[in-house]
Amino acid sequence: MTGPMRIFLTTLLIACGIFSTVAVAVQPDEMLDNPVLEMRARAISQGLRCLVCQNESIDDSNAGLARDLRLLVRERLMQGDTDDQVVAFIVARYGDFVLLRPPVQVNTIVLWFGPLLVLCIGGVSIFVFLRKAKQKTAAFAADLTQEERAKVKNIVEQTD
Predict the structure, then answer these.
(1) Are residues 8 and 37 in the same domain?
(2) Quick one: pLDDT at residue 149?
(3) Residue 9: which domain range?
(4) Phi, psi of 20 (to 5 degrees)
(5) For the chain, which terminus, N or C, has the lower number of CB atoms within 10 Å?
């Protein structure tokens, strides 16, 4: 094998090794022996927000609180709780914020529709601003005399 080909293949193997790693924070000592319960725990964990990171699920977070929550989920499952009961227990303790997809309720309506409201207010503000600017330009042009208009026209023609 030639030198450049060997370098290319080595680089490719290293890249495949780096990018094939899975970013999961669940430690082997946390995993349940029962594969069905472990799958349920992982599914629940992926829907719960890490309260430290706030942008990751507890399944992906390395924070200590996320680990505690993962262990709590597994403990509740081993006690015989259903998935909904486990989630309800954690929500009762930490509130709807712990859910990565909080329900649409009166107290979360701003969370769901706030960005749309801000976007609408911004669009209306831009429309009003542009309309006023156009009206000011039209009013300014109406105040000019014929002589001033001719001067402005000459200046515009010279700059083009």
Answers:
(1) yes
(2) 81
(3) 3-103
(4) -90, -5
(5) C
Residues (pLDDT < 70) of the chain are 1-6, 8-25, 28-29, 140-141, 160
Q: Among all chains, which residue has been given the structure tokens 């450049």?
A: 4
Other CB atoms closer than 10 Å to residue 13's CB: what's the count? 10
**pLDDT at position 91, please?**
93
| Domain count for the chain | 2
Query: Does 125 lie in the same domain as 89?
Result: no
CATH number at residue 76: 1.10.8.640
Q: Which pLDDT value is given to residue 76?
A: 94
Q: What is the pLDDT of residue 160?
A: 66
The reply to whether 125 and 153 lie within a common domain is: yes
Say if residues 38 and 30 touch (Cβ distance below 8 Å).
Answer: no
| Cα–Cα distance, 145 to 153 (Å, whole number) | 12
How many other C-beta atoms lie within 10 A of the C-beta of residue 90? 19
Query: Do residues 44 and 95 make contact, with C-beta atoms less than 8 angstroms apart?
Result: no
